[in-house]
Amino acid sequence: MNEGHVIEFAAASEREKFQRAVGRLLERWTVRCAAPGCRGGNPSKFSLLARFSGVHYNNRWYHQSDCLRAALTSRLSQMLQNFVESRERVHRLPFGLLLVNRGVISPEDLKRALRMQREAGYGKLSHWLQQIVPLDEHEVTAALGQQWGCPVFRLTPQNMISGRQNPIPFPVLAAAKAVPVHASHTGKQMHIAFSERVDHTLLYSVEEMLACRTIACVSPDSMVREALERLRREDAGNEITFDTVRDPNEMAATICSYAVQMDARRIKAERAGAYIWVAFFRKEARRELLFRLPGARSNEIDLGRERCKEFPGIADNGKDGVSSAARYA
């Protein structure tokens, strides 16, 4: 190889290194539409500019609503397939035996209550125990905390979180019979108290939606009910709840409809107990939708029919100013 060939080879090598470096920088500075079947050929855009167009969902960028809808439909289908009406969790120590071990009831009381429950075919064990012996609510709460491996939070009217401070949609909390009871000053940690069973899907969804760490605890049923009633009275009711939407395509079309009307730049969607919780973000503004899952238990708090919207094929076109989802179909 003569000297000219050596120089040409070295120059080509340097050009290749330069092109690779530029490619790496572009990958860092740009985003590409994440939809596998993107009709636009998966266009890319500088990350800073992508904040002003398209939608970020699930840490990916979609350049238009059709691409977003495909991703949402896939994810929502998975959520619906995985949802099964909550079954009672099998514990190493059943609740009744825990009460016996703590000396709250006798073995005979437990046998009698179990027989009554079996014959009636409904009701919690604590309900039937109360027909036999007076139960101390604090003892019941302590046993519940032992069963779930959670601390007991002494919820009082003084330390209840008000509706204006509550960042979680009220219907989600009411269905799970849970209330936020303490949040750190930075908002990075939140305690959520349950009165019956710990719903881990709710804990996870709060962590994802609010970018904070959640800690489960238990509180007396009467105090949780009182806190929920207070939240219900103070709740602004800004979220829109759909009770009749069941098909993931319809749900995705509804979400895309709201995203376009709000000009949202970021979307989050997670299952939270009996609901799919969707949040839209546009600068400092935030709006939320809730979809009640099929077969989900109805909570004992009256939410009011005015907040539940029927969905016979198109998105809500009432006071929210959201037009038909059919245009995004």
Brief overview:
This protein has 329 residues and is of the alpha/beta class. It has 11 helices and 12 strands.
Note down, in words, how this protein is organized:
The structure is a single chain. Strand 3 and strand 4 form a beta hairpin. The strands form three sheets. The protein has a seven-stranded mixed β-sheet with strand order 4-3-9-10-11-8-12, with helices on both faces. Strands 5-6-7 form a three-stranded mixed β-sheet. The C terminus is likely disordered. It is elongated, with a radius of gyration of 26 Å. It is an alpha/beta fold and 329 residues long. Among the domains are: 80 residues, no CATH class; 54 residues; 87 residues, GMP Synthetase, Chain A, domain 3 (2-Layer Sandwich). Helix content is 41%, strand content 18%. The longest helix has 27 residues.
CATH class of the domain at 150-236: Alpha Beta
Classify the oligomer: single chain
Strand segment count: 12
Termini Cα gap: 63 Å
Q: What would you call the shape?
A: elongated
Q: What share of residues is helical?
A: 40-55%
Biggest sheet character: 7 strands, mixed
Lay out the secondary structure.
Blueprint: H1 3-29, E1 30-32, E2 44-46, H2 47-50, E3 55-57, E4 60-62, H3 65-82, H4 95-101, H5 107-120, H6 125-130, H7 137-148, H8 170-176, E5 178-183, E6 189-194, H9 200-210, E7 213-218, H10 221-234, E8 240-242, H11 248-262, E9 266-272, E10 275-282, E11 285-292, E12 308-309
Parallel strand pairs: 3-9, 6-7, 8-11, 8-12
Antiparallel strand pairs: 1-2, 3-4, 5-6, 9-10, 10-11
